[in-house]
Amino acid sequence: MSKTLVRPAMIVVPLVLGMLLPQFSHFGFLIDPLLIGMLYMVYLQLDLRELRPLRAHWVILSVNLAVGIAAYLLMLLTGSRELALAAFFIGITPTATAAPVIMNLLHGRVGFVVSGFVVTNLGVSLALIPLIPAVTGQFDPAFVLRVVRSLLLIMALPLGAALLTRKLHPDAEGWPKRFKMLSLSMWSVMLLVISAKASKFLHDHSEVSPWLVAAIFGLAAAICAVNFAVGGIVVPRRFRREGSQTLGQKNTMFTLSLALSFASPLAALGPTFYVICHNSWNACQLFLYDRRRARRQVRGGSAER
């Protein structure tokens, strides 16, 4: 297999296998440990000076909220409340915990994406306090506690562990480069489990109209495209790639849980399908990035000869 296809395949193949083998959903308990392990490897080489909110992060948060509200209102015009709720929970979703991992694989500014995760997850959570009752007519403040737990477990724990490791063993900063395929391997296993959970969800709700399912998938794909495109436009040019990733890659497990709690299984299909959409684009990003690097290496080798 061509080197430019290896990393994209490690995303696409697990997604396909998960959809074909829903029984892997039973390994859902692996998601948090794998994510913590991936972020630990990223944080080993993180420059702490990058961890500060910039104006661009607040712009991304504003767009994040606007997309969720606008998508909801637009779908209400179709007369389908289920489509409107699915659109809301897709659009309102904050930045994914795994976004820094992909940005690290793309050799971008990881600190920008980490800061974006914190700003969007806290900002969206606060905004949902009035928005969830307005959209669904229901509310439970327990979801705020889930966000705090996520921040402490998924972000603070691996960051603290990485800083301690670097202090005790300075050479640890080079581990991510030495074991560069480890993070992607963990990501592949995690995608297999997430995709299997999505497949099981669809099997458990087979009574839903296929046309409505197709419409929700189309919504997820459209909002995904808008997020990745707009995220790269609303930030300064030097942060274009990071802004795109911060707005485009979403913490779907968070809003999927909220949709199931406050709306319906149909609304939860929105974030479920978004998993497929944003990871498909991640695979394309890795393919294009690796192909450009391979071409530069070939041209460099030719120049030397």
Describe the structure.
With 305 residues, the protein is mainly α. The protein has one domain: Up-down Bundle (Na+/H+ antiporter like fold). It contains 13 helices and no strands. It has helices spanning 3-20, 31-43, 55-76, 81-91, 99-105, 110-136, 142-168, 175-178, 180-204, 210-231, 240-248, 252-262, 265-304. The mean pLDDT is 85.
Tag the structure with descriptive keywords:
305 residues, 13 helices, Na+/H+ antiporter like fold, mainly alpha
Q: How is this fold's topology laid out?
A:
Elements lengths: L2 H18 L10 H13 L11 H22 L4 H11 L7 H7 L4 H27 L5 H27 L6 H4 L1 H25 L5 H22 L8 H9 L3 H11 L2 H40 L1
Helix pairs in contact: 1-9, 1-13, 2-7, 2-9, 3-4, 3-6, 3-10, 4-10, 4-12, 4-13, 5-6, 6-7, 6-11, 9-13, 10-11, 10-13, 12-13
